[in-house]
Amino acid sequence: MNLQAILDDIVATLRPELGRSGKVADYIPALARVPADQFGIALRTADGQEVASGDSATPFSIQSVSKLFSLTLGVRALDEKLWERIGREPSGNPFNSLVQLEREQGVPRNPFINAGAIAVADRLLSVGDGLDDLLAFLRSLTGETITVDEEVAASEAATGFRNVALANFMKSFGKIDNDIPAVLDVYFRQCAIRMDCRQLARAAAFLCRDGVHPLQRTEVLGVRQARRINALMLTCGTYDAAGEFAFRIGLPCKSGVGGAIVAVVPDELTVCVWSPALDATGNSVLGMRALELFVARTGMSVF
Ligand code: DON
Fold first, then answer.
1. What pLDDT sits at residue 97?
2. What is the residue extent of each domain of the chain?
3. Class of 3-298 per CATH?
4. Distance between CA atoms of 180 and 294, rounded to whole angstroms?
5. Which of 5, 47, 43 has its CA nearest to residue 270?
6. 56 is catalytic
7. Strand ranges, E, within the chain
8. Band of the pLDDT at 59, cuts 50, 70, 90?
9. pLDDT per residue as tens digits for the range 180-216
10. Is the beta carbon of 68 within 6 A of some atom in ligand 1?
């Protein structure tokens, strides 16, 4: 299969659509001014081949895609114990919703909604250095320098009233151990990490290799742990659009409001698409279209 030709063809097919539909995240100025007419795609195969097309080397705010890597660190450090305070069911609600949390006594439905990721950040602070561990992990997975966009991080903190509410709400149920400002600092800064499609495809490649590190022979996660992360991506990785993603794409995916979506084809490859304009659920419009084209042209699916 000529993967380069497939990616180039997806870029050519979507180019006329750039900037036509969806809306760039505008809750902070640093994201609102990102030009909508950008599209990148990159993949890394299980045997280490890397292929890319379009704006694949343009860095962006990874936002909620960071939840994939913080969850991986949490599973690595705590394994089953992580699930004492975090569920594994789709929420069927927007990623920043508060209502479910009250009904379910401060236990977030899953680690990919904001409340779940804040709970994971709390656990990472209890077992290690929080954000420093996450950055070191991403540097190890990519072999490259990975940094936080300080302007985005400061704006996340200045405007993240709902996340402050979610964290305090969980604390009121005794489900957060560390100080709220420290926990939120990890969460806001992880959202503000900057990476490009190429780096994200490489960093998430352990998920198509049953947990084996993309650049080393070491284990990032055990086989069962890696498969479970893929299961969570399929059922919860794109919030209340997870059903639509499974229906239209049929791969485990994790999205972020920076416009990135990471998708995994187990035993084959990991692909990252990026285009900043989002639909109403916070998922990249052209990213989703690109993944549909990708599975149609490669025949790849978990089903
Ligand atoms: O925490 C927030 O609400 C933002 N930083 C958005 C994170 C995100 O990407 C959620 N979903 N797509």
1. 87
2. 3-298
3. alpha beta
4. 41
5. 43
6. no
7. 23-24, 40-45, 50-54, 60-61, 147-148, 193-195, 253-255, 260-265, 269-274, 277-278
8. very high
9. 999 999 999 999 999 999 999 999 999 999 999 999 9
10. no
State the helix-helix crossing angle for 3-14 and 285-298, rounded to 10 degrees.
140
Q: Enter the pTM of the model.
A: 0.97
> 3-class SS at 110?
coil
Per-residue CA distances from 167 to 67, 95, 97, 175, 193 (Å): 16, 14, 12, 9, 20
Half-sphere exposure of 93 (CA within 13 A, CB side): 15
171 is catalytic: no
Using the structure block, give the residue that is written with the tokens 């109403």.
280
CA distance 75 to 246: 24
For 189, the token pair is: 């800064």
Which residues participate in the annotated binding site for substrate? 64, 114, 156, 163, 187, 239, 257
Average pLDDT, the chain: 97
Question: What's the pLDDT score for residue 48?
Answer: 97
Angle (nearest 5°) at CA 273 between 268 and 275: 175
Q: pLDDT tens for residues 126-185? A: 999 999 999 999 999 999 999 999 999 999 999 999 999 999 999 999 999 999 999 999
Cα radius of gyration rounded to whole Å, the chain: 18
For residue 278, the ligand 1 atom closest to its alpha carbon is: 12
pLDDT of residue 78: 98
- Give the residue among 101, 110, 236 at the shortest CA–CA distance from 171: 101
Question: What average pLDDT does this structure show over 55-83?
Answer: 98
DSSP summary character for residue 95: T
Ligand 1 contacts CB of residue 156 (under 6 A): yes
